[in-house]
Amino acid sequence: MMLIDRYKYEKLERITEPDGVRHYICPRTGKKLPSVTTILSGTADKTGLIEWRERVGEAKAEQIRQEATRLGSLMHTHLECYLSGMPRPGGNNYVRLLAERMADQIIHRGLIRVGECWGIEAALYAPQLYAGTSDCIGVYDGRPAIIDFKTAKKIRSREMIDDYFLQLSAYIIAHNELYDTQIETGVIFMVSRDCDYEEWIIDRDEVHRYKWRFFDRLEQYLCHK
Q: What is the CATH number that goes with domain 14-224?
């Protein structure tokens, strides 16, 4: 697959605060914009997460979080290299081999349906409001789409990934505003550590509903920050 330079995606300076909150610097105004993930995390119901951390203990919970982050980052690197035509990471330890196998699932079962790739790790922003980084922007099954890659310990149900759809919708809003596009499709490729694969798609009507729900979360975040 060839990376097509259809749009000139801007590079945004990214700042991670000491408390882990991520911001981007808007290239138009110089203002710090909260990331989409920061907005969603800051307005999410964390009851289950808090209970889990109490159950396993803070040290164990942090170890699991760091391992998941490392695995997810490495899998994303595999996919970025694949899409850009660069050599993929090597190594034969457990995490590196697992990341490679997980990336292969997305490549052979998901990306095979992506006809064009316009951007990888592309920064998007809504001036004065928010910013974020989309894993992949291109054409999925003939439709312009925002695409995200997700890892999970086990494949989740659709009801469990509501915030992922909100994230996609936020990126769709920003892309359509910045580049005068009419993207109406969001796609999630998810792979588990058992290398099970699942794919979810939201189209026009669902995207519209998720857009308004994201704006509700954005308003909630801005009112309480």
A: 3.90.320
Cβ(103)–Cβ(75) below 8 Å: yes
Per-residue pLDDT of the chain (225 residues; tens, 9 = 90+): 668 889 999 999 999 888 778 899 998 889 999 999 999 999 998 888 888 888 888 888 888 888 888 999 999 999 999 999 999 998 889 999 999 999 999 999 999 999 999 999 999 999 889 999 999 999 999 999 999 999 999 999 999 999 999 999 999 999 999 999 999 999 999 999 999 999 999 999 999 999 999 999 999 999 986
Q: How far apart are alpha carbons 169 and 155 in whole angstroms? A: 21
Distant-in-sequence, close-in-space partners of 208: CB < 8 Å, separation ≥ 6: none
